[in-house]
Amino acid sequence: MPPTCASSPCRGTGRARAAPIIDGMPHVLLIEDDASVRDGMELVLRRHGYDVDTAATGEEALALLDAPAGAKIELAVLDLMLPGMDGFEVCRRIRARTTTLPVIMLTARGDDHDIVTGLEAGADDYVVKPVTAPVLEARIRAALRRVEPSGPAGLAGPAGAQTSAGAEFAGLAIDRAGLTVTKHGVLIPLPPTELRLLLELSASPGRVFSREQLLASVWDHSFLGDSRLVDAAVGRLRAKLEDVPAKPRYVQTVRGFGYRFGPL
Which of 201, 211, 224 is closest to 257 using CA atoms? Predict the structure, then answer.
């Protein structure tokens, strides 16, 4: 059975130290109140080549992000069940500060309500505790790839897609080179996951994408994917793009199949 990060120490792959999986030693903020879990996860992440800051409370985590050194943090792993300010509120406050920091939430129960609420608060992905070291590391790698500026999994769009550098759809302008979105000239800041979702859909207007296709291309989840990730991201995207989110014009549902980009 793969090792888990449910207790300390968590030995990950069992080797003394794994080679860094991503160049530059990405910096992760780990927010977890359980000291044994926090220590075990920190050990695993450091063995895989990450720099790690830790926080036991939401307030401590937000203070770290607000400090000058917080600019170096590239991803947050956030436990939902924190003392004081819970993980949902921490996620909302992170999103109020920045749209570009990926957030992976940790939930102990896999409770549907918790997962949906966390995704609606702005989390990019989630894992259920106890999480195995390979799964956690794979989710972090996938989240970091989503914020890369180019490449097959980067923000430039799907690999090999024949798209122009920019296009406008009924007042919605998508600059694929500059990675910006404006509506009637007003900039709409989008987190990396929502931006990648929009780029993927808009690369082929009118084409219907299944949730499974979007999980594979946007979240890099070719296995163990959860369609709620897609539905929650679509809901957040509609809230920012649509005049009436309940009657979407740009990101449309095709019942029984998935989503497509309009307007048609």
Answer: 211
- CA contacts within 13 A on the Cβ side of 106: 25
Alpha-carbon span 60 to 37, nearest angstrom: 17
Do residues 179 and 195 touch, judged by C-beta distance below 8 A? yes
Question: Is residue 141 within a helix (H) or strand (E), and if so which, with residue range?
Answer: helix 133-145
Tell me which residue of 49, 1, 47 sits closest to 25, measured CA to CA: 49
Q: Which two tokens stand for residue 93?
A: 């406050």
Phi, psi of 226 (to 5 degrees): -125, 120
User: Does an H or E element contain 228, and which?
Assistant: helix 227-241
pLDDT at 4: 54
Lowest mean pLDDT among 111-125, 182-196, 214-228, 238-252: 214-228
Tell me how far apart the alpha carbons of residues 74 and 71 are, in angstroms, rounded to a whole number. 8
Task: Decide the pairing of beta strands 180-183 and 186-187.
Answer: antiparallel
Cβ neighbours around 108 below 10 Å, total: 15
Name which residue leads in pLDDT, 112 or 202. 202
166, pLDDT greater than 70? no
120, two tokens: 């609606």
Whether 50 contacts 27, CB under 8 Å: yes
- Tokens representing residue 168 in the block: 């406008």
Name all contacts of 171-178 with Cβ < 8 Å and 24+ positions apart: 172/241, 172/250, 174/198, 174/199, 174/202
